[in-house]
Amino acid sequence: MDGVLVHEEHALPGAAEFIAALRDKDIPFQILTNNSIFTPRDLAARLRATGIEVEETHIWTSALATATFLADQIPEGSAYAIGEAGLTTALYEKGYTLTDTDPDFVVLGETRTYSFEAITRAIRLVSSGSRFIATNPDVTGPSGQGPIPATGSVAAMITAATGREPYFVGKPNPVMIRTALNRIDAHSEHTAMIGDRMDTDIVAGMEAGLRTFLVLSGSTRPEEIGRFPYRPSEVHDDIAALLERLG
Hints:
The protein is globular and about 55 Å long. The protein contains eight helices and 14 strands. The chain is α/β, with parallel strands linked by helices. The two termini are 22 Å apart. It folds into two domains: 6-62 and 172-246, 3-Layer(aba) Sandwich (Rossmann fold), CATH 3.40.50; 63-168, Rossmann fold. It has a five-stranded parallel sheet, with helices on both faces. The protein has a three-stranded parallel sheet with strand order 12-13-14, covered by helices on one side.
């Protein structure tokens, strides 16, 4: 989503037209984001405000992927969650009980205000045996004032205090990609990943067996591509360059 369709609440060139073409031609698609703060309904409204018309069913977040993963691991289990509505709503909808007393999982997501008290509680629960899960490994997130600490940074703090590494469900974990494919009944041989980050989008698509398109409208600069031991299938300036592929 960010860096491909939008940047700081503004649609990127060709984004609205690309999504409109997918809808007009009944091509199934999912908009993926590691952002676990917002619900799909919230994100759909934010996209529509930029002129990109989508339904909430088109959006797949790291929070939804995490809740789906946990429900597969322990149906109707319990979790101590650090995060906002996107994460807690996803867990509730999967039948999870949120508790700070002997939960099956400690789940770390994105939030605007990380609480020292909440992090301390997470450290104690993980040390006592709760399994440690994080929605995504991103160490920083964007803001109008510059980068801010994100889930990966806080997870590193908990790991340093407990010696326990989290299992990250969001990109670049192929689990997030496969669950998104299942939602639209898509097969990897006939599906492509369009992303702006080599270290999350492109590697995740590649490991899931998808054709990958890197767009340079977000995080990755052209000179950075060669630093990675893998390559995207194609590189383009932005998603507008891919409009003609839709016929």
